[in-house]
Amino acid sequence: MTEHRGEMREVAGDTPLRGAPFERGVIRDVPADVTPMTGDALTDLLGAMLAVAGHLELPAVLDQFVRVSAELTCARFAAINVLDDAGTSTTFVYTGVPTAVARAMRHPPHAQGVLGQIPVDGVLRLDDLTEHPSFQGWPAHHPRMGSFLGASVKVGEHVYGQLYLSEKVEGGTFTARDERMVLALAAAAGVAVANAQLYAEAERREHWLRAGQDITTMLLEGVDEESALEHVARTAREVAGADTAALALPGMGGELFIELADGYRAAELTGLVMPRGGRAWTVLEEGRGLLTPSLSASRTVKLDEMRAFGPAMFAPLHSSGRGVGVLVLMRRIGATPFDESDLATAESFAAQAALAYVLAEARHAQDVAALLDERERIARDLHDLAIQQLFATGMQLETVRRRAARGVDPAELMSIVEDALDNVDSSVREIRQIVYALRDPDAATGVVERLRRETSLARTGLGFAPSLVLSLDGEVLTPGDGDAEDRIDERLEQELTDDVVAVVREGLANAARHAHASSVSVRVAVRGAGPTGSVAVDVEDDGAGLPATRERSSGTGNLASRARQHGGTFSLGTAPSGKGTLLTWQAPLG
C-alpha cells in the first residue's frame, strides 16, 4: 500500500493541477425541489460509483474519484484534497491543468480561504469564486477560474477531504443536478476510502506480523546478535514508512545507548546516550509506547541530533516485564505524523522481537551450560580412561626399575615392559579418540548419514528439499540398504569423508545464496577401493548460472584446495542442460 504524505498526484491520463486552484465563495445546501435525474444520468452515476468503489488501494480510489467527478459534471478542472486533523494537505490528486503550469506551483492548498468555507454537509456552489468574500487572490502561475463546486468527502462523521470542481464546460456554471451527482459520488467515495483504509491497515499489520516472524526465525536459528538487531531496525523502518529506525539498548554503567541506527542520519545517532527522564527511558521503564508529533518542535528534547527529525514513535522492547530496549522510529521534519494504529503494530512487533531476543539469550546460556558439561565429560574421560591408564603404566615401569636395581633377570622384566608399552599404545588411542571427537562431533557418524543430514538442513535456505543420489560401483543405493551404506563408509577414510561432506555443504550453500534455483541435485559416486578407487561429487542446479564476471570466492577456493590435497580435481561451470551451474569435485580413495 503506497502512502502519500503531503504530495500532489496527477490523475492517470490527464495533466496535473498544483497549488490552491480555488479560493472564495458561498455555501449552498442541496435544493429540495431539484429536477430528478434522467435514466441516463442515473446510469452514469451508478457506473461511476461502482468504478470508485471497485478499488482497494487508496491512490486508485482517489484517482478514479477525481476523474469520474470531472466527467459527470463536465468540469475542466477537478481535484481532491486529503486533509489531516489540523487542515493540512497530505495528498492532493488533480486533473485538468498543463504540466508546465502545474510544475510552477510550490505546494498543495490547505483548507483556507474559499476552500475553508466548504461545508461538512451539502456543497459550496459559486458562479464565480473570485466574488466570494473569502477569496484571497491567485497564487503565482495559477490559472484563472470562475465557476466552482466544492463538497466534503466524509468517512462516517469524519471529514476525510474536499472535492473541488471548476470551469464547467457546458453551460458555464454548475447546476443542482451537478450537486446531486457530486454528493452521491462523494458518499460512495467515503465508503471506498474507508474500505481502502481498512485494507491498508490490514496490509500493514500483515507486514508487521511477517516481519516479527522473520526476526524470531533469525534469532532462533542462531544468527549472531548484531545481524539480528540490524535486521530488526531495517525491517521496522521499511514497514513503518519511517525515514530512520534506531535501537536504544542498556549498556555499561546502566546507561541507555543507541546501539545501532538505520536510514537517514543513522551515523549521527549511533552511540548517543539517551538522557535520563527522556522519552526513551520513560518507554523502557513503563513498558508503554509513545507518539511525538515533532521532535524538532519539542522543547523537552535535549539531544540536538534528535531535533533533526519530525514525527517519532517509541516502542518498548519488553518481554515478561523485562525491558530489553526501545525501538525508535522517526520521519523527517514536515512528514505525516504516526498514528495510534502505527504505534499498536510497532509495539506488537517490538514485543515479538524482544521475546525472540530473550529466547535467543536463554538458548545461548543453554549452549554455554552444555559446553561446560562437555568439558566436564572430557575431563572425566581423560581422568578415568587415559590418565588412569598412564598412571598404571607408570606403576609398571616403576616396578621394572626397582627389580632391575635388585638384579632381577632381564627376561622376567621384558613381559612387564611389553605390558607397559601396550598400555601406552592404548592410552594414545584413547586420547586420540577424545581429541578427534572434539574436532568433529560427527566423527562416529557414517558419510551417508552425514550427507543426508546436510541435504535436509539445506531445505531452509533453498526453500525446497534438494535431491541426493548415492551410487556404489555404478549401482544407485536404495534407502534402507544398510550393507551398501556400510561399504561406502568403509571405503572412505575419515579425512576424505570430512572433505566430501564439506564439498556438498558448500555446493548447497552457494546454490541457496546465488542460484535462485527451483531444483538442486546432489550426486555422490564411489567406485573401486584403495588408491585405484575414486569418489566424485556433483552439485547441479537449474538457477541463474554463473555471472559474466566473477570475483574469486573463498568458498570455491577451499574446494579446490581440498581436491589438491587428495590429488583430485575441482571445476565449476555451466550445467550440461545449458541452464544453471554444475559443481564437480573428484578425489582418489587411497
From TrEMBL:
<protein>
    <submittedName>
        <fullName>GAF sensor signal transduction histidine kinase</fullName>
    </submittedName>
</protein>
<keyword id="KW-0902">Two-component regulatory system</keyword>
<feature type="domain" description="GAF">
    <location>
        <begin position="224"/>
        <end position="367"/>
    </location>
</feature>
<dbReference type="Pfam" id="PF13185">
    <property type="entry name" value="GAF_2"/>
</dbReference>
<dbReference type="InterPro" id="IPR029016">
    <property type="entry name" value="GAF-like_dom_sf"/>
</dbReference>
<dbReference type="InterPro" id="IPR050482">
    <property type="entry name" value="Sensor_HK_TwoCompSys"/>
</dbReference>
<dbReference type="GO" id="GO:0016020">
    <property type="term" value="C:membrane"/>
</dbReference>
<dbReference type="Pfam" id="PF01590">
    <property type="entry name" value="GAF"/>
</dbReference>
<dbReference type="GO" id="GO:0000155">
    <property type="term" value="F:phosphorelay sensor kinase activity"/>
</dbReference>
<dbReference type="Pfam" id="PF07730">
    <property type="entry name" value="HisKA_3"/>
</dbReference>
<feature type="domain" description="GAF">
    <location>
        <begin position="41"/>
        <end position="203"/>
    </location>
</feature>
<dbReference type="InterPro" id="IPR036890">
    <property type="entry name" value="HATPase_C_sf"/>
</dbReference>
<keyword id="KW-0808">Transferase</keyword>
<dbReference type="InterPro" id="IPR003594">
    <property type="entry name" value="HATPase_dom"/>
</dbReference>
<dbReference type="InterPro" id="IPR003018">
    <property type="entry name" value="GAF"/>
</dbReference>
<dbReference type="InterPro" id="IPR011712">
    <property type="entry name" value="Sig_transdc_His_kin_sub3_dim/P"/>
</dbReference>
<keyword id="KW-0418">Kinase</keyword>
<feature type="region of interest" description="Disordered">
    <location>
        <begin position="540"/>
        <end position="577"/>
    </location>
</feature>
<dbReference type="Pfam" id="PF02518">
    <property type="entry name" value="HATPase_c"/>
</dbReference>
<dbReference type="GO" id="GO:0046983">
    <property type="term" value="F:protein dimerization activity"/>
</dbReference>
